[in-house]
Specification:
Layout lengths: L25 E4 L2 E4 L16 H18 L3 H13 L10 E3 L2 E6 L8 E6 L6 E5 H5 L6 E7 L5 E7 L6 E7 L4 E10 L4 E2 L5 E7 L5 E8 L8 E5 L7 E6 L5 E7 L4 E7 L8 E2 L9 E6 L2 E6 L7 E6 L2 E9 L5 E8 L3 E8 L2 E8 L4 E3 L8 E4 L10 E6 L6 E6 L4 E7 L11 E9 L5 E9 L10 E4 L17 H4 L4 E5 L9 H5 L7 H16 L8 E6 L1 H12 L4 E7 L5 H6 L6 H8 L6 H10 L13 E6 L8 H13 L6 E6 L10 H19 L3
Parallel strand pairs: 33-34, 33-35, 35-36, 36-37, 37-38
Antiparallel strand pairs: 1-2, 3-4, 4-5, 5-6, 7-8, 8-9, 9-10, 11-12, 12-13, 13-14, 15-16, 16-17, 17-18, 19-20, 20-21, 21-22, 23-24, 24-25, 25-26, 27-28, 28-29, 29-30, 31-32, 32-34
Helix pairs in contact: 2-12
């Protein structure tokens, strides 16, 4: 029997939203008792969710969402049409050479998913490798994770998820016939690595706790049940195992680690069954990665400097590291790829992306880009000695651009500029980067986009986005979606707050674990700085973040509700205390380095309890809120947004609209098709516009 208050959805005033029942439940840690009356929303059989009370409540919330949005269907349709009109219907990637073949993907007009192609580099007909629309036709959700062609070009390993649960089925396809000839595993996650013989494949599997815990070797034609385990993580509950290949194809890389510690083993690609070579034993809070060129291991590590150094080692003595480039306070080295002629380093200097090419004689230079503020990354460069390096570039006013860079001529050749069929005139827009003071004196970068003529008298509306966790930066790149707000007279801003690594690895550390409050304060202080700059006013700011960024939304909704005109929290990590106390949840042990372990550490318990959004909902007014989740989400489980919404409904003192939407057939990323995803963006923007005006 359902024991929540069912709303009469025939009402048009939305005055009776679903109200989840409160069932007494409490627990104690470190001498403190916590009441959790909505704990019942977590199905004890998870990841199976079949409790009828839970499902009925989620369905009623979804019905309430649909009822609330139905009067605005025309606006959602208009926004969706705008967003779709900015996407090239038959978009395609720039072909990339890998050995004897050119590879690329393309959409057909109206297609939700890509089709993957190749043709001989010497000339010849196009051939389909994988037709995603055909594979997705029979399922509600489809996500391709891996598509890797064997060295001899005859086979492809590919994996896909059909539920959103992020357990991928790995298959082997014969490219001559287009038929799948083997199913290797139904519980893979992550990349794969082919052996040099094209008959062996290294892959990773997840356990029941959704942890990628082992790397296995499959020999084509053999029973997968007999696959040899090359490495299994047994020491650390929070470590995950991944595989890859060095740029010179000499080694298969097996890495294990969490958010702060890593350990790497190497297996010869010519002999994948050989005993793995341990590069250097794990040391807590030391990270390192390994590439290979000219018989030397090239290592990127933070062992001597927080912003990482570059070292080299002999494979015969892989733990003896000789510094090649020392760590720097001003240069944050984020990635290393060792090509035949250069080591390519992706860096960030004063928050700005850089690509540095260093020849093996020590000479080096940085690629010069055309704008003062932008984002640039090394693209797909599968060959060891390419004639040019593929780069991807954008800014807040420059669409996604693909370059080839000739290091000898030091020249960029434009291969593709993102086409916007409905039109885009960059001269109509302006972008700026503000440095806003936080309450502790740190200067927070904020990137802002608006149409020229945007008012600076505080009358303007502003959409503010941030993430702020895991060292994940949000670069000042281009988005066609946000133009739907900007073209309606809004400004769009990205706050590069601590917790990301926008200003270096230490910027990340300053928002992590015991320093977590810096992230939340930075966001609110960035908003106040934008108000001080005349870009907006309190109550005229819509805010958005997802996952850990959704946690951010929950905290600042509690601490500074008067600043926000609307809040959109996507798959929000808001039941932080309960999740970090539950070591049986799939991701919890691996998250302790990021947030702290409240089971063993009372200080971590007190800190998490001080900000956990679900635990700090108070009897006061909150702005209009849209909260989303996914029933199959293994990262932020569905009950986190559901419990948060339930507590907000029962506690807040305002009549502002609160909506909860749970995707019943999707996971962490929402719906999988490119147009289905856009419609969810359109719904979020419509919610903001109808709650704050400006539609």
């Amino acid at each position: 029997m359902n024991d929540f208050s069912g709303a009469d959805l025939s009402l048009t005033d939305l005055s009776r939203p679903p109200v989840a029942a409160q069932r007494p439940h409490s627990y104690s840690h470190h001498g403190i008792t916590i009441d959790d009356p909505w704990a019942w929303l977590k199905d004890p059989k998870y990841p199976v969710v079949d409790d009828e009370d839970i499902l009925a409540y989620l369905r009623e919330e979804n019905a309430y969402f649909e009822k609330a949005m139905q009067p605005h269907a025309a606006l959602v349709d208009a926004l969706f049409a705008e967003m779709k009109g900015r996407l090239k219907e038959d978009d395609a990637s720039v072909p990339q050479k890998d050995g004897d073949w050119l590879y690329w993907w393309a959409f057909k007009p109206g297609g939700q998913y890509r089709i993957w192609y190749r043709r001989p580099a010497a000339g010849g007909p196009d051939a389909v490798i994988l037709d995603e629309p055909a594979e997705a036709a029979a399922v509600d959700y489809f996500r391709l994770q891996v598509l890797s062609v064997s060295p001899d070009g005859k086979l492809a390993a590919w994996s896909a998820d059909s539920s959103g649960a992020e357990r991928f089925v790995l298959k082997i396809r014969d490219l001559a016939t287009g038929e799948d000839i083997e199913t290797v595993s139904a519980v893979t996650n992550g990349a794969v690595a082919w052996g040099a013989d094209s008959r062996s494949l290294v892959y990773t599997e997840v356990n029941d706790n959704w942890r990628t815990y082992r790397a296995r070797l499959h020999i084509l034609g053999s029973d997968p049940a007999t696959d040899r385990t090359l490495y299994e993580e047994t020491e650390e509950l929070g470590f995950n195992v991944g595989v890859g290949k060095t740029q010179d194809d000499a080694w298969i890389v097996i890495a294990t680690g969490d958010n702060q510690t890593s350990e790497v083993r190497l297996v010869p690609a010519a002999d994948p069954a050989a005993a793995p070579l341990l590069v250097s034993p794990r040391q807590t809070k030391r990270e390192y990665s390994v590439d290979s060129a000219h018989g030397t291991l090239w290592i990127l590590t933070n062992d001597e400097h927080v912003n990482f150094r570059v070292a080299r080692a002999d494979p015969a003595n892989p733990g003896k590291w000789e510094t090649v480039i020392a760590g720097s306070d001003s240069v944050y080295i984020r990635g290393l790829t060792s090509f035949a002629r250069h080591i390519a380093l992706t860096e960030r200097v004063d928050g700005l992306d850089q690509v540095r090419l260093r020849a093996y004689d020590g000479s080096e230079h940085r690629v010069a880009f055309p704008e003062a503020s932008y984002t640039a990354v090394l693209g797909s460069n599968p060959e060891y000695d390419p004639p040019a390096y593929r780069l991807h570039y954008a800014s807040m006013v420059t669409p996604q651009t693909v370059f080839d860079y000739d290091p000898a001529a030091r020249a960029l050749t434009t291969l593709k500029v993102q086409e916007i069929p409905s039109g885009f005139d960059p001269s109509l827009y302006a972008t700026e980067r503000l440095m806003v003071p936080a309450r502790d004196g740190k200067l927070i970068p904020v990137s802002v986009l608006y149409r020229k003529g945007f008012p600076r008298d505080g009358s303007g509306k502003l959409f503010l986005y941030a993430y702020g966790a895991y060292g994940h930066a949000i670069p000042p790149g281009f988005s066609t979606v946000r133009l739907s707000m900007v073209d309606r007279g809004w400004a769009y801003a990205i706050a590069h707050i601590r917790g990301g690594d926008d200003l270096g690895y230490d910027w990340y550390l300053q928002g992590k674990a015991e320093a977590r409050w810096n992230t939340f304060h930075d966001f609110s202080d960035a908003a106040k700085g934008l108000i001080a700059a005349g870009l907006t006013s309190a109550g005229k700011i819509a805010i958005n973040g997802g996952s850990a960024g959704g946690e951010l939304m929950g905290v600042v909704a509690n601490t500074d509700p008067e600043l926000w005109g609307a809040v959109v929290a996507d798959v929000p990590f808001v039941d932080v205390l309960n999740t970090m106390l539950d070591a049986d949840l799939p991701l919890t042990p691996g998250e302790w380095p990021e947030w702290g372990n409240p089971i063993t550490d009372k200080a971590a318990f007190d800190l998490i309890r001080s900000y956990s959004p679900y635990d700090n909902v108070a009897a006061k007014p909150y702005p209009p809120m849209l909260i989303t989740g996914g029933l199959n989400d293994p990262r932020v489980t569905y009950w986190e947004p559901a419990k948060w919404a339930a507590r907000l409904r029962a506690t807040k003192t305002d009549d502002n609209l609160l909506l909860l939407k749970i995707n019943m057939g999707a996971g962490h990323g929402g719906k999988s098709g490119r147009y289905d995803s856009l419609r969810e963006d359109a719904e979020a923007y419509a919610f903001v516009l109808t709650q704050m005006g400006g539609a």
